[in-house]
């Protein structure tokens, strides 16, 4: 009988061999199947390659069912393997990111499914005297009251065979019901004209359209100052891709808050795109996954995990704000979606467009060396001027004691608001104060689980760790010396800036935009509406305000602490700070009213401040490149981190030392560490880091694999591999 390899979405599994039962046509590679695995049923994907002919027949189990859904494309299968090999992750762990809940595999249209009958509901609630097998109990636990699921998805979700579900139906515990109709995914209207493009925009759009029409792999970097029309231009590439009959994927860093982007898309194409992000509800998620697999979604806007969706014929991937470090996934399979987008596009024969006003040094270097094409929009749309950037030297004109806004910034805000315009204060720090100190004994409130200070959130009357989520009430006395009223907040967070602003500008209508106050799309949309409608005079925000907003009446941006990101030894800190502050600055000024940006800084001569003031970002990046090239730091060399963590500090140290001793040696490579990781303790685990730095031409994966193979790691110690770490 025929045998097949099946990849299971489990972190420890490679492929498993299964038998095709008599009477079942052998499912082709990529088919979604249900298979038994140690007494349970699970999902899998028929994989390529030859099954092991020596595996004895008695050890093989039969494929239980084949789902009625288009098989996963070869290009996605190769992509899964590629990501697994690059990140040193098990392929099954990567496959898991490409799978959805089992019920997504049920046909979406009205079709028979099962729901709990009255007897079933009583049994579920424990109001029945009957006794149930463990398998039946699992089904009862899985199915919610009133929920309808197909037999296969129910069986898979409960981890039982389809026979159990059938048996329960026969016993009257389940009754047939119609599965809900999947939501519609409206198709974009390609006959709608786009906006009239300016001459530079037309050239850029023509190049991107040509890239999308080529139906082959290529990467284009699209740059241009904020407001130059990058989004309008790449939407033309999306239109071209759809005309080719292929699907387009747009990755955005802060998708749940991108309501303005979605509105623009809807204006351009008469329909909203499909969405994919972590806050998508379970039902919507399953329907979207299914619709993508069946080719019913033309354009999808998503977070990084959207790269793993089963598009039948992906023709274009746009990565907007490509420099954003939030494209890096730091848990589980550690990957950078910007880089993996390029790989996904290559394997799919698709065009890839990387978009940024401030591209990463990686991408700039790729463009300079000719690996990527480059398209540049030199001016703001409609002749708007770029904002004028000035530094307020904190050494010369500091804020008053205990205050954070200097007199000249206060005056500028006052003038702006008096002139009927809007102002914004930016501080990339949530909460009230980043540090709480006892004035009596000097004790500092720190997280019990992490190497981090607790951040006061005054509105919630709590101290919070921004790394592990630990929170505790603000203590009435110092926990160390018991002094009363001695705990003092040090330094500002947005809440504290808001407090100061309330005193300074009591009549101004203020709006705080931070993750506490803007938790999701609805709040983001409402904030955008209020600002556009001029119901707000002063916006006070964290990095949330930096992302892609267009506020036509905003003319002044004040950066409360421009030096904030520069502390610490991270080689990339300067690049990141320039990118963030440039992005924030870009919120100010539109065609109607020129903008002004004031940076409060203690080091106005720092290259970051100089670059922002002069606007010479190219020069800044060239200098950055000059600093990294000699030492072969990325992007002029390769870097991988091993992060060793354990609850027991000595264990972490011992494994880190063993790894250090077993470090690979060879020409063009160097191992740094072990040293405490950037967060030496995180969620109660002690962390050590080793960095492997290689010349560009060296492939790091085989070196890492061999290295890890030389060291015994006990189960209580975790070694995470982070290829291309974002900070170093
Ligand atoms: P970027 O992405 O470079 O910041 P956008 O594409 O978001 O620029 O454009 C900035 C603003 O200018 C948006 O409100 C956009 O709708 C508008 N805009 C850009 N180009 C045009 C155009 N050709 N016609 C009309 N409006 C445009
Ligand atoms: Zn913590």
Using DSSP, what is the number of strands?
31
Shape: globular
Helix content: 25-40%
Rg over CA atoms, rounded to whole Å, is 28 Å
- How much of the sequence lies in strands comes to 15-25%
Mean pLDDT over the full residue set: 92
Number of helices: 20
Shape-level CATH architecture of the largest domain = 3-Layer(aba) Sandwich
Question: By CATH's scheme, which homologous superfamily of the largest domain applies?
Answer: P-loop containing nucleotide triphosphate hydrolases
Kindly report how far apart the N and C termini lie.
54 Å
Query: Which ions, cofactors or small ligands are bound in this entry?
Result: adenosine-5'-diphosphate, zinc ion
Strand arrangement, major sheet: 10-11-9-12-15-8-16
Structural overview:
It is built from 20 helices and 31 strands. With 728 residues, it is of the alpha/beta class. It has 6 domains: 3-82, PriA, 3(prime) DNA-binding domain (GIY-YIG endonuclease); 112-178; 214-377, P-loop containing nucleotide triphosphate hydrolases (Rossmann fold), CATH 3.40.50; 388-430 and 491-625, P-loop containing nucleotide triphosphate hydrolases (Rossmann fold, 3-Layer(aba) Sandwich), CATH 3.40.50.300; 433-474, no CATH class; 636-723, Alpha-Beta Plaits (2-Layer Sandwich), CATH 3.30.70. The strands form 8 sheets. The chain has a 7-stranded parallel beta sheet, with helices on both faces. A 6-stranded parallel beta sheet has the order 17-27-26-18-25-24, sandwiched between helices. Helix 7 (199-213) packs parallel to helix 8 and helix 16 (573-585) runs parallel beside helix 17. The radius of gyration is 28 Å and the shape is globular. The mean pLDDT is 92. Bound molecules: adenosine-5'-diphosphate and zinc ion. Adenosine-5'-diphosphate is lined by residues 195-198, 201, 224, 226-232, 381, 550.
């Amino acid at each position: 009988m025929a045998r097949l390899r099946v990849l299971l979405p489990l972190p420890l599994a490679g492929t498993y061999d299964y038998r095709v039962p008599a009477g079942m046509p052998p499912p082709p590679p990529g088919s979604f199947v249900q298979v038994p695995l140690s007494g349970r049923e699970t999902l899998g994907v028929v994989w390529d390659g030859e099954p092991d002919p020596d595996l004895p027949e008695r050890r093989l189990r039969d494929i239980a069912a084949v789902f009625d859904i288009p098989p996963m494309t070869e290009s996605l299968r190769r992509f899964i393997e590629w990501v697994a090999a690059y990140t040193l992750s098990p392929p099954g762990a990567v496959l898991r990111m490409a799978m959805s809940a089992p019920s997504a595999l049920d046909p979406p249209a009205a079709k028979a499914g099962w729901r709990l009958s009255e007897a079933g509901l009583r049994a579920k609630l424990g109001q029945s005297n009957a006794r149930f097998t463990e398998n039946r109990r699992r089904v009862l636990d899985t199915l919610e009251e009133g929920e309808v699921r197909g037999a296969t998805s129910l069986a898979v979700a409960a981890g039982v065979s389809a026979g159990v579900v059938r048996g329960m139906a026969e016993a009257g515990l389940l009754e047939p019901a119609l599965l809900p109709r999947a939501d519609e995914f409206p198709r974009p209207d390609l006959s709608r004209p786009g906006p009239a493009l300016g001459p530079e925009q037309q050239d850029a759009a023509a190049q991107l359209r040509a890239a999308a029409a080529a139906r082959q792999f290529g990467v284009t970097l699209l740059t241009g100052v904020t407001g130059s029309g990058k989004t309008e231009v790449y939407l033309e590439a999306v239109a071209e891709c759809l005309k080719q009959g292929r699907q387009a994927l747009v990755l955005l860093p802060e998708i749940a808050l991108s309501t303005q982007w979605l509105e623009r898309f809807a204006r351009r194409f008469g329909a909203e795109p499909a969405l994919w992000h972590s806050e998508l509800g379970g039902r919507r998620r399953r329907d979207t996954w299914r619709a993508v697999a069946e080719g019913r979604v033309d354009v999808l806007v998503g977070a990084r995990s959207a790269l793993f969706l089963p598009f039948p014929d992906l023709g274009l991937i746009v990565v907007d704000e490509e420099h954003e470090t939030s494209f890096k996934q730091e848990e589980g399979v550690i990957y950078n979606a910007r880089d993996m987008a390029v790989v996904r596009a290559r394997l799919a024969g698709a065009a890839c467009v990387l978009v940024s006003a401030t591209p990463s040094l990686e991408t700039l270097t790729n463009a300079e060396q000719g690996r990527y094409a480059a398209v540049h929009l030199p001016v703001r749309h409609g002749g708007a001027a770029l904002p004028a950037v000035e530094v307020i030297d904190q050494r010369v004109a500091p804020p008053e004691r205990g205050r954070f806004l200097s007199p000249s910034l206060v005056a500028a805000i006052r003038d702006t608001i008096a002139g009927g315009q809007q102002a914004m204060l930016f501080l990339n720090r949530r909460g009230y104060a980043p540090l709480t100190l006892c004035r009596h004994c000097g004790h500092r409130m720190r997280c019990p689980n992490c190497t981090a200070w607790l951040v006061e959130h005054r509105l919630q009357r709590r101290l919070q760790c921004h790394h592990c989520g630990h929170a505790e009430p603000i203590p009435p006395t110092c926990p160390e010396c018991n002094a009363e009223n001695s705990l003092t907040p040090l330094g500002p967070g947005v809440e504290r800036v808001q407090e100061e602003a309330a005193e300074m500008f009591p009549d101004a209508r203020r709006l705080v935009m931070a993750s506490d106050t803007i938790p999701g799309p609805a709040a983001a949309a409402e904030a955008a509406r209020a600002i556009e409608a001029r119901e707000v005079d002063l916006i006070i925000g964290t990095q949330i305000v930096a992302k892609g907003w267009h506020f036509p009446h905003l003319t002044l941006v004040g950066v409360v602490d421009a030096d904030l990101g520069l502390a610490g030894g991270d080689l990339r800190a300067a690049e990141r700070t320039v990118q963030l502050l440039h992005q924030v600055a870009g919120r100010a000024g539109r065609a109607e009213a020129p903008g002004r940006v004031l940076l409060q800084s203690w080091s106005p001569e720092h290259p970051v401040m100089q670059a922002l003031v002069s606007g010479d970002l190219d020069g800044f990046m060239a200098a950055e490149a000059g600093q990294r090239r000699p030492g072969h730091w990325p992007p002029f060399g390769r870097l991988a981190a091993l992060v060793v963590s354990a609850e027991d500090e000595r264990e972490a140290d011992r494994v880190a030392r063993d790894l250090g001793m077993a470090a690979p040696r060879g020409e063009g490579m160097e191992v740094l560490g072990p040293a405490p990781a950037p967060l030496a303790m995180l969620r109660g685990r002690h962390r050590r880091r080793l960095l492997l730095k290689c010349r560009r031409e060296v492939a790091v994966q085989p070196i890492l694999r061999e290295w890890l193979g030389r060291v015994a790691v006990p189960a209580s110690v975790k070694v995470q591999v982070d290829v291309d770490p974002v900070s170093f």
